[in-house]
Amino acid sequence: MSIKQENNGVMVQDADFDLIKQFLEGSEPAFNEIVRKYQKRIYWHARQMLGNHLDADEVTQEVLIVMYKKLQSFNYQSNLFTWIYRIVTTRSLNQIRKRKIKNFFSIDDDNPEVDLKSNVDIIGDLVNREKLARVNKVLEKLPIKQRQIFVMRNFEQLSYEEISQITGKSVGGLKANYFHAIKKVLEKINEHE
Amino acid sequence: MNTNRERIIQYIAELMNESERVLFSRELESSEELKAQYDSVKLDLEKFSIGKIEADERYFSNLLPSVRSKVEKPVKNKLLPRLAFAIPTLVVVVIAIILIQPKYNSSSSNLEIVNEIIENLDDEIISSKYISDLELDVSRYYKTFASITENNEVVLDESTKNRILTVYDYPLNDELLSAQSLTKEELENIYSKIQTKNY
């Protein structure tokens, strides 16, 4: 990381800490500011993990509500986004597990909920929609942990150290998971081609 | 998957140790075949990346108000449903107490009256009473009672009184008054009936 980036990171962190302090002192606009700053990153991480808008929307709203209620427990040891990311990741994994359980007990193959989920979207452009659908089709074949690391490394360009802080996993373990994730993704891409 | 492809993925995933990494980097510079394979893998991964996708900004504009409305919703009073059950229960209990209370009072006031009456009972009254209510249990108590009467005096201990009270589970006032109104002939008639009765 360059000095400029590092300074920028520290500035972002200080600005975030100021916003948190203001919010905890009763400033509601400070919370609005935090939401506006991070809502897109929260949404897109959830979206890449979950593969559809409705689930991502549900998780995003849940995360924002949790932030509002739990910001007082923020300990200023990590930066705010790592803390937020941890919540998004946990909620997304829970949502995937919930969905798996739901699908397991679902008898009806023609689930109207699936159609609804694929039709409701905030991406207007058809090309981008298809591209995202293609990516999701491959990602959903990966085990949850591999999908998580692949999304964070490939799409969000997070370092192993940052991912380790978020997930609580060792860097070595993350590297091994990423290795298997890449292998599987390449296999699936070749299969589709 | 060939060995080179596996090594390329290890290299990308930073899974190689320092010496392996240095060796691979040198090989990548020297081997065109390896370089081509490496570029191919990188290209596949780049093609697979999502990049910047434009989304409907209205969704993000509405997100905050939507969250705010959920956060600021008045918290449902969890006490109210419990009270909804507790209040009728309380009412039922109060009504039950009100209904039971006079009975209890009357039985306790009867108790005093009965005690007082028993203290002043004489044999005639007792006999007449038992004959008017001739039941198996009553006769048993009467027998017990008769055996302890001597010199025409009624001597009752507390346990006897209580046993009598269990037989008289209702106010005695009226019946005792009616017993007192009996004539001597009537009482003698009752005695004779008792004597002929085989217990």
Furnish the topology, listing elements before pairings.
The complex is a heterodimer of chains A (193) and B (199).
Chain A: H1 3-24, H2 28-50, H3 53-70, H4 80-105, H5 112-119, H6 126-139, H7 144-155, H8 160-167, H9 171-192
Helix pairs in contact in A: 1-2, 2-3, 2-4, 3-4, 4-8, 7-9
Chain B: H1 3-12, H2 18-30, H3 32-48, H4 57-71, H5 79-119, H6 123-132, H7 136-147, H8 158-167, H9 173-180, H10 184-196
Quick summary:
Chain A is mostly helical and 193 residues long. Chain A has helices at 3-24, 28-50, 53-70, 80-105, 112-119, 126-139, 144-155, 160-167, 171-192.
Instruction: Please count the helical segments of chain B.
Output: 10
Sequence of secondary-structure elements of chain B: HHHHHHHHHH
> Regarding CATH, which class of the largest domain in chain A?
Mainly Alpha
How many individual β-strands of chain B? 0
Counting DSSP H or I runs of 4 or more residues, the number of helices of chain A is 9
- Multimeric status of the protein: heterodimer
Number of strands of chain A: 0
The radius of gyration of chain A is: 18 Å
Mean pLDDT across the residues of chain B is: 75
Order of helices and strands of chain A: HHHHHHHHH
CATH architecture of the largest domain in chain A: Orthogonal Bundle
Strand-residue fraction of chain B?
under 5%
Largest sheet of chain A: none
Described by the principal axes of the CA atoms, the overall outline of chain B is: rod-shaped
Q: Detail the poorly predicted runs of chain A.
A: 1-6
Write the CATH fold name of the largest domain in chain A: Rna Polymerase Sigma Factor, Chain: A
Strand content of chain A: under 5%
Distance between the termini of chain A: 37 Å
What is the CA–CA distance across the termini of chain B?
A: 110 Å
Query: CATH superfamily assignment of the largest domain in chain A?
Result: RNA polymerase sigma factor, region 2, helix turn helix motif
